Amino acid sequence: MLIMALLVCIFTLSLIIHPQEVLESSRDGLLIWSNSVFPSLLPFFIAAELLIAFGVVSFLGVILDPIMRPLFNVPGAGGFVWSMGLVSGFPSGAKFTVKLRKQNKITQEEAERLVSFTNCSNPLFICGAVAVGFFHNVTLGLLLAFTHYSSNVVVGLIMRFYKSTASPSTETVSSHSVKAAVQAALYEQNNDKRPFGKKLGDAVTSSINTLFMIGGFIVLFSVLYRLLNVTGIIDYMAWFPSLILSSISYGSDLAFPWLSGFFEITVGNKLISDLASIPLLQKAVVAAFILGFSGFSVHAQVASLLAETDIRFSPFFFARWLHGIIAALLTYIFWQPLYIQRLEHPAVTGSTNESFIVIWETIHKQLINYGSFVTMVFLFLYILLITFYTTKEHTSSRDLF
Question: Is residue 3 part of a domain?
Fold first, then answer.
C-alpha cells in the first residue's frame, strides 16, 4: 500500500507539473466518450436492462442451457451476456455478468468463467476503426475479426475447466422446451412488480451510471498515457517489449506501439498502422494481441464493475492474456488462407473496398456531429429522472411522519 501511495503522489505531482498536457488529454478522452462511447453503448445497455426486466434472459437461459453448459460450463443465460458482449463490446460482458450474479442466477465460479470470454471488441471497432480507419484495409478487418472472435471462443472452452468441480447454479433447468422457457419468463415478470415506466427509468439511470464510470476511466488512462509519454517513462518501459519482439525476429519499432496498446487499444493500433517500415503480417499479429488483451483502461472498467460483487478479477486478467496470445497465433496461422489468398482472389472488389471506407467515414462523421448532442440529451434526461426519484422518496419519507 505504501508503494501505491507513492505512485499516487507521483501521479498528482505530474498533474501539477504538466497542466497543459493534462488538459489536452482530458479533453481528448472526454470527446471520445461523448462522441463515440456514450451514444454507441447506451442503446445496448438500456435494451439489455429491459430484456432482463421482462424475463427475456430467463427465456433464453432455458433455451440456450443445452449449448452453454456443455461448451462453457455456464448457465444458458450466459448466452445472452455473450451475445451482448459481441455486439456492443467492452465492458458489456462484465456489466451483465454482474447483473446475473446480483440476481443469483449464476454462482461465483460461473460468473468468473462467464466474464472471462464475454468481453471483446465489437465488430464496428475492429472492422471500422482499426481495419478501415487506421489500416485502410477491409480484408485485414475480416482476418482480425475472425481471429479475435474465434480466439474468444477458445478462451471460453479453456476457462470451462476453471473450478469445474464447483457446484452449478440453482438456475440449472431440467426441461429445455419452449413451454418451460415461457414459464421461466412469466415467473420473472411476476416477481418484478415495477410498472413499465419505472423499469424504463431504472434502465436509463443504471446504464448512464455505468457509462459515467467508463468515461471516468477513459479520461484517467488518457491522462496517464500522456504523462508517461511526455515524461519519457514509456520509452524506458518499452525495452521489455522490444526484447520479446527481437526474440521472435520482429521489428523493434513495434515495441512502443505495442506497449501503448497495453494502456489503450485505440492508441496502440493507430501507432501500429502508422509504421511504414514494418511488414503488414507483423503489424497484424501485434494488433490482434492488443485487441485480445484489450488494454488496462478496459481492465480497470471491468475491475470496477466486478468490485460490486464477489467475482474475482484474476480469472478475467488471465483470460485477457490468453485471448491476446491465442489471437496473435491465429492471425499468424490464418494469414495465408484468410488474407493473402483473399487478396489474390478477392471477395471484395476495389470499388466495394472504397465503399466500405466511405461507409465508415460517414459513420465516424455522424458520431462526431451528433454524438455529443445525444449524450447531452440523455444526461439531461438522467438529471430529470434522478430529481424525480429523489423528490418522490423525500415525499414518501415525509408522509411517514
Answer: no
